[in-house]
């Protein structure tokens, strides 16, 4: 079960079927999707959010292999501003996106910290790995500020095309020493 989480400025609400409507409205934007894995359909179909929420995310949550939260500012708790998830997928344990209007304000840093702590200290996982496009400087900055380190480089397919890709990692012991 995915619990509700909270930071100083955000509510992290477990993803639910009703969230598909807002996701469909805010998600299909190049600024959000360009550095996501190429398995995400692009152009985003009219039923893309419904399919993702009900056929991918919620079944994985029910199986206990993934945890999904919507991000909502405390000033506007009914407005979805992004999504963050954890997954037992090898070398791909955390992913996120945030609408451009709310980027570069520290919201995703807050969200990643509380979710990473959940990964290590509630779920008891030993290591967290997050892949990212080499040119996704904002995502790399978030990982570096949380004590993660680059452990592998390769090529990968993103919506923007084949790009240099990086795998970032932190262990539970490293995380707990930082916090």
Report on the architecture of this protein.
The chain has a five-stranded antiparallel β-sheet, sandwiched between helices. It has a three-stranded antiparallel β-sheet with strand order 6-8-7. It is of the alpha+beta class and 179 residues long. The protein has helices at residues 19-26, 30-33, 48-63, 107-121, 137-145, 172-178; strands spanning 5-6, 10-14, 66-73, 82-87, 94-98, 127-133, 149-158, 161-171. Strand 7 (149-158) and strand 8 (161-171) form a beta hairpin. 33% of the residues lie in helices and 30% in strands. The protein is globular, with a radius of gyration of 15 Å. Helix 1 crosses helix 3. It has six helices and eight strands; from the N terminus they run E-E-H-H-H-E-E-E-H-E-H-E-E-H. The model has no long low-confidence stretch (mean pLDDT 98). 31% of the residues are buried.
Topology:
Blueprint: E1 5-6, E2 10-14, H1 19-26, H2 30-33, H3 48-63, E3 66-73, E4 82-87, E5 94-98, H4 107-121, E6 127-133, H5 137-145, E7 149-158, E8 161-171, H6 172-178
Antiparallel strand pairs: 1-2, 2-3, 3-4, 4-5, 6-8, 7-8
Helix pairs in contact: 1-3
Number of helices: 6
The secondary-structure element order is EEHHHEEEHEHEEH
Shape: globular
Strand content: 25-35%
Largest sheet: 5 strands, antiparallel
Helix content: 25-40%
* Cα-based radius of gyration, to the nearest Å: 15 Å
